[in-house]
Design a protein that fits this description.
By secondary structure, the protein is of the alpha/beta class. The protein has a single domain, classed as Rossmann fold, CATH 3.40.50. 41% of the residues lie in helices and 11% in strands. Strands 2-3-1-4-5 form a five-stranded parallel beta sheet, with helices on both faces. α6 packs parallel to α11. The relative contact order is 0.20.
Length: 246
């Protein structure tokens, strides 16, 4: 039967480094951002490489077909299927009933740092581009259904990769393996077609880099401050139950 892990991630949360980490396991298949093509198709957002992504991932424009596949056969005869979901891609028309049929986890990041990184790549980003509303909604749905899914913060992961990954694996009832702590640099066949536009830092990496030690970003724009305030209220709901290292 195997284990399907859906990591519900925010943008700019080291979600691709986490994909690398799980891809370093010999027992794990990967799926990179299953709903991204549908998201671009429906929203019309002018993300970098939009046309390339829509052409390369035309088979994933159908959200219902993607939802059905999430609980389907695990590729490559692997025991684990790690699926990297970016939360804002889960639009209102996306059927997310699968969240109760797989093992969900949540990847978050201090909103100030997340937004600073996001606005650098996509200056038009608003609250809806952070995915925090979807993360909280799915987390609450799972709790109401009797599950308590694990939450991890990217700064905690970067500060203590071994400890946090061990705690995450334990919570997901899969064994931790030390190979999750490092990987060869460069692109992967499992990267989405958006890799050249978003993955430059990960392609140069060989493991989780330490968290930044500079001051927390400050935003002077009232509009940006408003987005940050809304993000913090949502982030705090998840951060208070996050896992820490052993």
């Amino acid at each position: 039967m195997g284990t399907r892990i859906a990591m519900i991630s925010g943008p700019r949360t080291v979600s691709t480094a986490m994909l690398r980490s799980w891809g370093s396991r010999s027992d794990t298949a990967l799926w990179d951002e299953p709903f991204y093509a549908h998201y671009l198709d429906v929203t019309g957002k002018a993300h970098p490489g939009r046309d390339v992504v829509l052409q390369a991932h035309a088979h994933e424009r159908d959200a219902d077909a993607v939802s059905d596949r999430i609980t389907g056969e695990i590729p490559n005869n692997c025991d684990i299927w790690y699926q990297k979901h970016i939360a804002q891609h889960l639009l209102p028309d996306v059927n997310v009933d699968w969240v109760e049929q797989v093992r969900c986890a949540f990847l978050i990041r201090d909103p100030a740092r997340m937004l600073a990184s996001l606005w650098k790549r996509y200056p038009e980003a608003t609250l809806s581009d952070t995915g925090l509303e979807q993360q909280v909604a799915i987390f609450n749905r799972l709790r109401e259904a009797g599950f308590t899914p694990p939450v991890i913060d990217s700064d905690d992961v970067r500060r203590d990769p071994s400890g946090v990954l061990r705690a995450l694996c334990r919570s997901l009832d899969v064994p931790f393996v030390p190979s999750m702590l490092s990987w060869p640099p460069g692109p992967r066949e499992t990267d989405g077609a958006w890799g050249p536009y978003w993955y430059d830092v990960v392609w140069a990496s060989e493991g989780f880099a330490p968290p930044p030690d500079d001051d927390r970003p400050i935003f002077n724009s009232p509009a940006q401050q408003d987005v940050l305030s809304h993000c913090m209220a949502l982030y705090d709901q998840l951060a208070q139950v996050r896992l820490t290292g052993d």
